[in-house]
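Task: complex structure prediction.
Instruction: return structure tokens for all chains below.
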Amino acid sequence: MPIITFPDGAQKTFDSVVSVIEVAKSISPSLAKMALAAEVDGKLVDTAHLLDVDAKLAIVTDQDAAGLEIIRHSTAHLLAQATQMLYPNAQVTIGPVIEDGFYYDFAYKNGFSEADLGKIEKNMYKLVKQNLKIERIEMERDAAVAFFQAKGEHYKAEIIASIPKNEPLSLYQQGDFIDLCRGPHVPSTRHLKAFKLMKLAGAYWRGDNNNEMLQRVYGTAWANKDDLEKYLHRLQEAERRDHRKIGKKQSLFHLQEESPGMVFWHQKGWVLYQIVKQFMRDIFIDNDYQEVHTPQLIDKSLWQKSGHWDKFSEAMFVTGSEHREYAIKPMNCPAHVQIYNQGLKSYRDLPLRLAEFGSCHRNEPSGTLHGIMRVRNFVQDDGHIFCIDTQIQDEVAAFIDLTFKVYQHFGFEDIAIKFSDRPQKRVGSDAVWDKAESALKKALNVKGISWELQAGEGAFYGPKIEFVLKDCLQREWQCGTLQVDFSMPERLNAHYIAKDGSKQTPVMLHRAIVGSIERFVGILIEHYAGALPTWLAPIQAVILNISEKQLDFATIIEKKLKKQGLRVISDLRNEKIGFKIREHSQQHCPYILVVGDKEVENRQISVRQRGGKDLGTMPLETFVKLVTTE
RNA sequence: GCCGAAGUAGCACAGUUGGUAGUGCAACUGAUUUGUAAUCAGUAGGUCGCCAGUUCGAGUCCGGCCUUCGGCACCA
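Output:
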């Protein structure tokens, strides 16, 4: 006699064992029709699940987040079924739900092509029309292994074999297709109404690049066609913001074959770059950093001492001269230790903060390059703080505050913090790592900041805190970083004389706020879709004349505004005013200044703000004030 | 690096079964002297990513390489 309690507190008593779908029917036929699954005492189950004891029950429909997830998961199964019907030699592996959709990895020797995606998708919709029942089957582990082995599904068998023996296993069947799955799934294929296969990619079996490569099919799935359309539209919006497109359109930079992963900055892009750099330079000055500059080419032996050669020699560009081997620096820290080491330091000198906009080269694998976001040559707002271990917490706290301040200034609010602890490939003793990790965690906890743990993701010399921004494509970009390093100062013989006269090794904090300026500029471009705020805009205002008669006046105000420090150009071409306004609007110029006969007569300018807002005519001084106080 | 796709004029793209490469915008020249998102006309512009090959003939077909794009792995 199970008593079922619903989310609103209402209760219903049933005479005997009852299934979820029967409970739903007892409430209303339409609810039964919509039911995808149910949450029973906090656990998700199928609609066929039987209830034999008292339980709290909530029917899950496509209106719930859990419902959407089930739809995506079931769509992944549908993809696998449709694929195996067309390509019986393709073996199934895994098909999880991801943000906005799902994927399924197949082991398929012949490989798929984009054309296959269309065929598979068609077949999926065909199976939806057949409204196949999706049923759960329970099986013992060893029986399941044998079952999949017999079907020639070796990957699946391997997955199941790695599951503990006593755990009950569930399989799901729809038509002839059977897959291992925890579930739950939608009751039948008719519930899968809006999906699209998006792209084809390679992916390593079990995420390990020593394993063979599988064929991954990505798809998106939604509760209805409307949501699917909205999602596709969102993707288009993201594409519109692509920094590579905007960079070309606004002539900010370009890349070319002869320098893969290295940026050719055009005048306008370089202005933006320099604004970011100068802003960070001022931040250094205001926060007691000393800006220094160190060589780009440093003898291999130093990289051997620092430990970089062992770990990253393959990713370093090297060059030789007179029988000596040099590496182009991939980072600035060993060089900063060399500056620190000039002259004996006292505890009174600490913390000593060194900063550098040093040009670094890393030979990143070709497949990783991505516009100006992931490059082989970049400059960071790089800094190293040499301090005593008792000073770590204060330094970390001050850095966190500073970082948030900087991000806010650039217009970023959505920031996540991640904490990465010791990786497998590392230098330094466990005792030293214990010390470093706890110092970082303590600083975070004292500030009351929540963070996500990334186990084993630390740098080889120390644990790190990462500051992660989300861009318009919902991709995460790690910008800021702070790393505690007890190892490198020791390896490179850095010392200070302590209060008691003893010789000690300082701790080194590696830190950056915007990180790679190249990447940060890319993020800014996408964040603002090319319409940069006035303080960042390479061109802040453009002067347009109506006709030749105002040439002289236009030239005079251009000079005057430039003298006031504004970044101004004039467009005096013999074109209609509408045409010129259109062009500069498309370039997202913050202000368009129009001068015609009236303006010449009054010695004023007519100001049009980005977005088409007419601010009327005003004297130059008023405009300068407007822009500088914006 | 691995899997898949792509590379044609400054940019965005078309190019059929292999038969001497096109369109739009931009550029240039001329006319027009214009009042808030496209004035008109004309001209010029290409070793079809690179290298080899098949063919009487290759943008198109085969092979290799480079770069880019989407992922995977990587990211000091």
